[in-house]
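Appendix B, Record 12. Input sequence as logged:
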Amino acid sequence: MAEASEIASKLADIEKKALQALSMEETLSTQALAEKSGLNLDAVRRAMSWLNDKRLAVMLEQPVEKITLSEPGKKALAEGLPEKQLLMLLEGEGGKGELKALEQELQLGKEFNFALGACKGKNWITIVKGEKGIEVSLTGLEKDSLKQGLLEEKILQKIFASQKLGKEELEKIPELQKRGLIEKKLLVERSIKISALGMQALHSLKGLKEETNLLSSQILKTGSWKSKQFKKYNIQDPVPELFAGKRQPYLAFLQQIRRKLTESGFQEMESPLLTQEFYNFDVLFQPQNHPARQWSDTYQLKQPKHGKLPEARVVKKVKEAHEFGGGTGSKGWRYEWNEEIAKKIMPASHCTAHSARQLLKGITVPGKYFSISRVYRPDVIDAKHLVEFNQMEGFIVDESFTFKHLLGMLKQFAIEIGGCEKVKFYPVYFPFTEPSVQISAFHKEMGWMELCGAGIFRPEMMEALGYPNLPALAWGFGIDRLAMLKLGVKDIRYLFSDDLKYLRNAAIVGE
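Logged structural output:
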């Protein structure tokens, strides 16, 4: 009884009215409950569902076949059946008319032939060949039917009003269905019966005062709130889920990285989407016959194909570095460097091209620089790879810095930015850094993932750009993969997804 009283005290008004209309002796349909409770059908449906959920009543569902009017049936009911329209027109024409003239006047389409057949079958008309063509005439037998109303029309009216059909009318249903005037639909008819717990709750309602859920300023001023019974709040009731506006998680993550780097003294570099092979490869001491410069690893622009190179002094230095090492003491790559290849325009395949541009543009020593930008590489798209993705590139120039400083900084980036628990370093080879290192981090779902390539820019590169003997600690992070670690995303494609379910459920990233 205590449970029933507790439930009863939290019932909505429509639930109370519906419950008070029920009794143990009868099961009420939706329509019957609406009539007995005084609620509209929508309110009754909600009340039935809520009472069922609270075990105060049992809702029963019974599949029933219901006959409804089709669109042609509704039109026939409003304008008259085709056969009735034909009879009425003939009456207006004095009892007869020419076939083609009748068809043109009625504009019934295919229904005209049916109207002729129906009227002829019931001996309401005759069809004969006359002097002016085929003549249609009334027989006089149609008068009683028109006066009393056509049976088919009465059936349509009853179906529209949801009235019960008689035996003779039911026999006409197949014919009306064949004509497309009616449709049969399988519907679910709901009814409700009060439960034992509902009876207890109903008894509890009798002892409750009239409740209010509105606390107005007038009630407070007059003090009438003291004598009122306020409706209890049920904090366990399910409520609609609200989806507040928030920033796209990956974009917010990138903005967070930018802020952290600039707060740490880094300057952001310009990062154009298009560059030349000169900046993407040649300045970086990558030979023109290197496999990474082939069509299978990079994209090329069809039009325009070539761009302008920087001043001749820099081009000459890069050419010398490739051919014999320039002034560094290196042997270089020992081949004839081609200036036309270096002019080719391409989408940037890595962000180190932007570091080369910045070094050529000018830097401060000591100095820290970074860029976050889009790069493009042909690849097979899967959970870890895209053909268009982002990289975070950066370098630090300081005469006192060593390779150990670089390793410490990379580890700090992986832990603080990516939220990594474990990191590993591997020796690797890059044409433009020496020594070179790769850092991998552990993801609980995807295992070990490559995050970053790094190293100290080679003398052949730095000397050509005008910085001999200056150490530059450089790195290129796969920022997308760092984001996967930080945001808990298993598939890299979700970073760029417009899937509303993912975006709504994604955690908010602070900036």
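The mean pLDDT is 85.
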